[in-house]
Amino acid sequence: MEAKTIEGYISQYDRIFVLENIDCTSESFFRLISLQTERKILTLVLGQRLDKTDVFRLKKYKIDIQLISSEEYCFIKNLYYMYEFSECIHVLTDNIQYGSLVNYVTNGLLTKEEALNAFLK
């Protein structure tokens, strides 16, 4: 994956979610996003978290899903800091090292719906 690919995604999609260590096999994440917005969403998921049958099953939520490798994830994460100002790319992780809306949901301070609404605004 190259920087031009990410630039293309930014021009094509309203929001890009990059998922790391999130339970993305659960349909609730994708269902909530599809209910909350009409925006064009791309979700990049580490290939080890989903397989192609999961991706096919989740397509009903009208969210584009692409599997990425660990190397691509690291590349995107490095680029994320460059594009953070655009609010187009969101890296979602449950890593407690980083303060995030995901941690607020985990600790019961926000509901999933409230966190997604914040990401989608």
Characterize the structure shown.
The protein is an alpha/beta fold and 121 residues long. The protein has one domain: 3-Layer(aba) Sandwich (Rossmann fold). It is built from 6 helices and 4 strands, in the order H-E-H-E-H-E-H-E-H-H. The chain has a 4-stranded parallel beta sheet, sandwiched between helices. Helix 2 (27-36) packs across helix 6. The longest helix is centred in the middle third of the chain and has 14 residues, at 70-83. It is globular. The termini are far apart. The model has no long low-confidence stretch (mean pLDDT 76).
Short note summarizing the structure:
This protein has 121 residues and is α/β, with parallel strands linked by helices. The chain has helices spanning 3-12, 27-36, 52-58, 70-83, 101-106, 112-120; strands at 15-20, 41-46, 64-68, 89-93.
Produce the secondary structure layout:
Blueprint: H1 3-12, E1 15-20, H2 27-36, E2 41-46, H3 52-58, E3 64-68, H4 70-83, E4 89-93, H5 101-106, H6 112-120
Parallel strand pairs: 1-2, 1-4, 2-3
Helix pairs in contact: 2-6
